[in-house]
């Protein structure tokens, strides 16, 4: 990678500003970066950094650490860590011929937004990575000592942040660039954990006189399982289970497979079931599905009224036992999903929720996953225990895993005060401070580096974790303007610059 747009770059980026940021994001779109498979991208960035004379190393968890020396005269300024994650959520619409392990993302511009129509875009958190790389590329920017922490596996369990070792980072201030609402500084976030459920089953042969059918429920908007959990969007798994339980009460239906969702931290947009019914009942079952589609569209009007339920013939060789079918459908129907409690201390913010994000069942057994979030540790623990207890009633194994701490807000943060002051000077307006229900790596990083002062911000992103994800182009330019101004202000605190900034930043070093 060099300082100019490559000749092979998608023309959609050619007119976008700031050019350096979009050139780096174009590179991110070209290189696949699924969670746990970020190696190719990480190696490309490391080669680029070393070619520019920057320090670049990979830690034992697979995270990439870059370092850039301070500008002349700013060597004594507090060190700043810029942090983002390399991986992206890989979601696509049904029927979309896209392989996230090899195909590039194909973005387009529309009405001031950069988006991907049938896949996720990867602006979460690719724009944060692009902003950081543009900073490290810019030799005209004046700043103090800089580090970049580019983590791996954030979207699939925060594996990179979990594996981050104490003593690696030198900076005392950290700017996380994983925020998705321009004009807001994030100062805290939810923690959480997963509940993984698994049950072995006993397959049976196809009953005599039965025909195989496949039911597909699709067309939901989906979205981020934290940020969008209170938007009342449909969960394809829960909806299809509801339909199947009704069908089972009226027809001698036998379930062969049930699949839904493809990411633990995304609201499931699609689910499918393969089943068998007596051939004589096939037409009546089809009519029931037409009625269900109409009912669910009415219930989800204004949110997910594009829902579709399709029926097709399918080959079925084995089905679940009647007992296994009952346990799975009853348990998934009773299992919680969505908002459990709203915060009493942070107005307008969800405190505790969970997402039934994935299910994969066959005639011989299967599994499902719940992602539980809460602003308070006891909230996530209680809800996870409730899910475990529900499945224990049927002797189904459910275990808690992947706990990560929340990020406790510090309203007195000197770095926050500095960021707000710079924002005010740059844009002539006041910013806002938020605590969000999504999970950020800030809590894990801060737990390993006590005393680290952390603030998060970024451009406006909509539809993260779902096809159609988009980023507001103008807000990317504003985020670049803010980031560079903040770094220059912090750097000036190590010289004879603004005394107020020097004192405010110095407070964070205590």
Q: Can you tell me about this structure?
A:
With 510 residues, the protein is an alpha+beta fold. It contains twelve helices and 25 strands. The strands form six sheets. Strands 9, 11, 13, 15, 16, 18, 19, 20 and 21 form a nine-stranded antiparallel β-sheet that branches. A six-stranded mixed β-sheet has the order 1-2-6-3-7-23. It has a four-stranded antiparallel β-sheet with strand order 4-5-25-24. β18 (338-342) and β19 (350-362) form a beta hairpin. α1 (19-30) packs across α3 (123-137), α5 crosses α7 (322-334) and α9 (414-427) packs antiparallel against α12.
What's the short version?
The protein has helices at 19-30, 39-51, 123-137, 159-162, 236-250, 282-299, 322-334, 377-392, 414-427, 442-448, 473-492, 499-507, and strands at 55-58, 64-68, 80-85, 108-110, 113-115, 146-151, 173-176, 184-189, 191-200, 203-205, 210-218, 223-224, 254-260, 266-267, 271-278, 308-313, 318-320, 338-342, 350-362, 365-374, 397-404, 432-436, 453-456, 461-462, 470-472.
Please describe the topology of this protein.
Elements lengths: L18 H12 L8 H13 L3 E4 L5 E5 L11 E6 L22 E3 L2 E3 L7 H15 L8 E6 L7 H4 L10 E4 L7 E6 L1 E10 L2 E3 L4 E9 L4 E2 L11 H15 L3 E7 L5 E2 L3 E8 L3 H18 L8 E6 L4 E3 L1 H13 L3 E5 L7 E13 L2 E10 L2 H16 L4 E8 L9 H14 L4 E5 L5 H7 L4 E4 L4 E2 L7 E3 H20 L6 H9 L3
Helix pairs in contact: 1-3, 5-7, 9-11, 9-12
